[in-house]
């Protein structure tokens, strides 16, 4: 009981507020977390279909992914403390899942259109 109170007290005391630097870092990581697997899947499919000259359309898709990630990070920043959020990966998954189901941060632009939004 004493240990859990100590841990909770320290978590609350050490939780820094979100700032522009950590928002940018989280957004950049989100973008990479979406684009890297998409590129790999695109390349695997192109290779399987023998389309060796196929090029992943990153320039067209990335702005939509950035918008999605900025929205998710903004929503996280008003919902949880930064330190709490980064140690709870299920929270990010929850926000992404909500977005992909057409929630507040649903994909827009090229990405949104490709997903039927």
Properties at a glance:
6 helices; disordered N terminus; single chain; mainly alpha; 117 residues
Q: Any low-confidence stretches, pLDDT <50, length ≥5?
A: 1-15
Helical run tally? 6
Rg over CA atoms, rounded to whole Å, is: 18 Å
The arrangement of helices and strands along the chain is: HHHHHH
Q: Please provide the count of β strands.
A: 0
Distance between the termini: 49 Å
Class by alpha and beta content: mainly alpha
| Major pleated sheet | none
- Structurally, the number of domains stands at 1
Helix content: over 70%
Shape: elongated
Estimated share of beta-strand residues? under 5%
Q: Please, what is the oligomeric state?
A: single chain
Q: Report the mean per-residue pLDDT as an integer.
A: 87
